[in-house]
Write a structure and sequence with these properties.
The complex is a heterodimer.
Chain A: H1 3-28, H2 35-57, H3 61-90, H4 98-104, H5 106-116, H6 118-121, E1 125-133, E2 136-143, H7 145-171, H8 177-198, H9 210-227, H10 235-244, E3 248-253, E4 258-261, H11 263-269, H12 273-276, H13 281-284, H14 289-294, E5 301-309, E6 312-324, E7 330-339, H15 341-406, H16 412-443, E8 452-455, H17 456-473, E9 477-481, E10 488-491, H18 493-510, E11 515-523, E12 530-537, H19 544-547, H20 571-581, E13 585-591, E14 595-603, H21 607-615
Parallel strand pairs in A: 9-11
Antiparallel strand pairs in A: 1-2, 3-4, 3-7, 5-6, 6-7, 8-10, 11-12, 12-14, 13-14
Chain B: E1 2-6, H1 10-22, E2 26-30, H2 33-43, E3 47-50, H3 59-68, E4 77-81, H4 86-94, E5 99-102, H5 107-119
Parallel strand pairs in B: 1-2, 1-3, 3-4, 4-5
Helix pairs in contact in B: 2-3
The chains are: A alpha+beta, B alpha/beta.
Chain lengths: 616, 124
């Protein structure tokens, strides 16, 4: 017995036992997809291997024939088991249900029956002789038609299964190169050996290595499947999840070559997976250079970016994560992205709505505060009006009583002075009432202007005349500057006079033994050119905290302001209103201790400008 | 009787002073709160007619200071003011005024008040 023969038969036995072990292992996990057929496949391989081994070492013809028949049982079962395994494992042969499988099982069953009854019809073997040489059983067989039918059937099953497996492997699991190679080799190897033998390239006298090769294939299979636990996580389900995801998924290896690309990603790129796998990712997405540049060296990130696709700007949520193999070695990167344009739009809309709501709330709060302030102002107004009316009335009534009771006893001079006091107080009262009415007109929007060309110098002269009594009372001097600089202007002379008188009166009231200066100027370095009036005094000035209230009606109602200086408290509010109505502005600057300057300007519409406008 | 009149409005000051002189009183005049305090302390009048809206120091402060000072506490103070709201009256009395009279002045009533206060019992 040669060493090779011993080695060969030992290998058959060992591999047969291994195949049985795999069968048992797979059987225990038979609830997993592919496990049952794998178990059957392993079992039939084991029967084949052990049967062949026993055949080879049989020393008698009946024993050898008996083992051949057992061996044959494994051989005819194997192609069907293989097809079943391929169908169930890949899920890619949906038409191959159990009923059809049972139908396909008719063929191996018939073959077995034909082989077992060969002595009656010789359809399987036309002759079968056996001799024992060197403790070694050599079978010389000539095959009959049924044998070739069986072979054809077997090859059909094996081809179909191999096709399914190869296609499946190529479509999925690309990350595992080694496994892919193992599966492909294990599918191809037994074929090669069997084809070589049947075609006579390997002489028939040599041992039949088909079974042995198949056993090796089975080992490779079992290793790749069981080790990578593919039976435990159904690969087809995983693949379906990946393919049906709306998120785009691309996996690239260390060199940036695409190893996996799902359907959503294929849609975006516009090419099928078959054209994409193996290509450099940066070439595939070269249409979006900013994307290539952005992720050139990024292995881990989660962010939102804006990309222009088909001339519309879209937002994507992009996640990049590194891929490590079982030994924690870096193997590539996984890109997952999702179009979040709509999401962002909704988010943005929500944010804007929220802002609008907050804005509305602010406006409401403001309106409420304004209403409350208005209500408070109204109460303050009434209290103040009562006070302001009572003061001159006190003088009027008081003097009247004095006159009533004592006119006979007092001098004519005294009587005249009392009557003048009554007259003055009545005048104050009238001013107050006029101002209040005017303010009411302004607040109800019923104030209007009567504009015409008027002589500025004349208005200034009127004002200085009217302000004389006030100026004299506090011994103030009046100085005019630049009154001749502007000859005439366009505006409502009554309002200009009113504003100017209000400012001069204020200056005169609050200043004692000082100087009030009225300046008129044409200012042409502003747009539009202005005619500017300034009233300055060197009085006590206005404290900073009071400046803000100056233009509020009745702001003057402070208890520590002297009676002599009080007006109705409406003058500045009215003046500013008319100034603005004529397109100008009224401002007040003051520094306590240095005096106050009130400035108001109006757009310079002198006769030249107005004529030019009329002509154009 | 010596009466101190604290009033910032010149016309009203003059008018009230003349009327009080007619009644035979001796009159001192103050044009603001500070002067009123000063004169009250130096001249010790028998009664003070006090305007509330005085410059420099308002009437409420003047009344409060005089009433918290042992030396001037006994001087009756009549608030004489155009602040006519009920809360103004409360505020005036709370600051220590013995009576609160409104402008325009009802002199008959004012004179009764003065008599009552200087006789020692307040008329409410």
């Amino acid at each position: 017995m040669s060493l090779l023969f011993t080695f060969y038969t030992s290998a058959l036995l060992i591999l047969g036992i291994v195949a049985m072990a795999i069968a048992a292992y797979a059987w225990r996990r038979r609830e997993m997809p592919g496990a049952s057929p794998l178990s059957l496949l392993s079992m039939s391989t084991a029967i084949w291997l052990i049967g062949q081994r026993m055949e080879l070492v049989s020393q008698t013809l009946p024993a050898a024939l008996a083992w051949i028949r057992i061996e044959l049982f494994g051989i005819v079962l194997l192609p069907l088991a293989w097809l079943w395994f391929a169908a169930e494992y890949t899920g890619s042969l949906p038409w191959l249900n159990r009923r059809r499988l049972a139908f396909l099982a008719i063929m191996p069953a018939s073959s077995l029956a034909v082989a077992l009854t060969n002595e009656y019809h010789s359809l399987f073997w036309t002759s079968l002789t056996l001799r024992v040489e060197n403790f070694r059983t050599i079978i010389d067989s000539r095959y009959g038609p049924w044998f070739w039918l069986t072979v054809t059937y077997a090859y059909a099953c094996l081809s179909l299964g191999a096709y399914a497996i190869v296609r499946f492997v190529l479509q999925t699991a690309r990350l595992f190169h080694l496994q892919t190679a193992a599966i492909l080799v294990s599918v191809a190897a037994p074929w090669m050996v069997n084809i070589l033998r049947l075609t006579g390239v390997i002489p028939k006298s040599a041992p039949d290595l088909t079974a042995l090769t198949f056993a090796v294939s089975l080992g490779a299979f079992a290793w790749s499947i069981l080790r990578l636990r593919l039976l435990e996580i159904r690969p087809i389900a995983r693949d379906m999840v990946l393919q049906s995801m709306n998120d785009g998924v691309i996996a690239v290896d260390e060199q940036g070559r695409i190893i996996e690309v799902n359907r959503a990603a294929q849609m975006v790129i516009g090419q099928p997976a078959s054209q994409l796998v193996g290509k450099l990712a940066r070439d595939v997405v070269a249409r979006w250079p900013e994307v290539v540049e952005r992720y050139r060296n990024v292995t881990e990130i989660a962010e939102e970016i804006e990309v222009e696709i088909d001339a519309t700007r879209r937002w994507f949520d992009v996640r990049v994560s590194p891929i490590y193999d079982a030994r924690r070695m870096y193997r590539g990167r996984l890109f997952v992205w999702r179009d979040v344009t709509e999401e962002r739009r909704i988010r943005e809309e929500l944010r804007r709505n929220n802002e609008r709501l907050l804005e509305a709330q602010r406006a409401l709060t403001e309106a409420r505060d304004a209403a409350e302030a208005g209500s408070r102002a109204k109460s303050a107004f009434l209290a103040h009006m009562s006070h302001e009316i009572r003061t001159p009335l006190t003088a009027i009534i008081g003097y009247c009583q004095l006159l009533e009771a004592g006119i006979e006893r007092q001098s004519l001079e005294q009587t005249r002075s009392d009557i003048q006091a009554i007259h003055l107080a009545a005048g104050h009262l009238l001013d107050l009432v006029s101002n209040v009415l005017e303010m009411a007109r302004i607040e109800t929007g019923r104030s209007d202007l009567h504009c015409l060309m008027f002589d500025v110098a004349e208005v200034v002269r009127d004002v200085t005349m009217a302000a004389q009594p006030l100026l004299r009372r506090n011994r103030n001097r009046l100085r005019l500057e630049g009154v001749d600089e502007v000859e005439e202007m366009w505006g409502d002379p009554t309002r200009v006079r009113q504003i100017l008188l209000n400012l001069v009166s204020n200056a005169a009231k609050f200043t004692t033994d000082g100087e009030v200066v009225v300046r008129v100027a044409y200012v042409d370095d502003e747009t539009p050119p202005r005619i500017q009036f300034q009233v300055s005094d060197n009085g006590p000035g206005i404290a900073a905290e009071r400046m803000a209230q100056l233009f509020m009606p009745f702001a003057i109602a402070e208890h520590n302001i002297g009676r002599e200086q009080r007006g109705a408290g409406l003058g500045l509010a009215i003046s500013r209103h008319y100034c603005r109505l004529m397109g100008g502005e009224l401002t007040i600057e003051s520094a306590p201790g240095y005096g106050t300057t009130a400035t108001f300007w109006l757009p310079a519409r002198t006769s030249r400008v107005v004529q030019a406008e009329v002509r154009s | 009787m010596r009466i101190l009149i604290a009033e910032d409005d010149a016309m009203n000051r003059d008018m009230i002073a003349r009327r009080m002189r007619w009644e035979g009183h001796t009159i001192s005049l103050a044009i603001d709160g500070a002067e009123a305090l000063h004169l009250a302390r130096t001249e010790m009048p028998d009664l003070i007619l006090l305007d509330m809206g005085l410059p420099k120091q308002n009437g409420w402060d003047v009344a409060r200071q005089l009433k918290s000072d042992e030396a001037t506490r006994h001087i009756p103070i009549i608030a004489l003011t155009a602040y006519a709201l009920p809360e103004d009256r409360v505020r005036g009395l709370a600051s220590g005024c013995d009576a609160y009279e409104l402008k325009p002045i009802d002199f008959e009533r004012l004179l009764l008040r003065i008599r009552a206060l200087t006789a020692g019992d307040a008329l409410v």
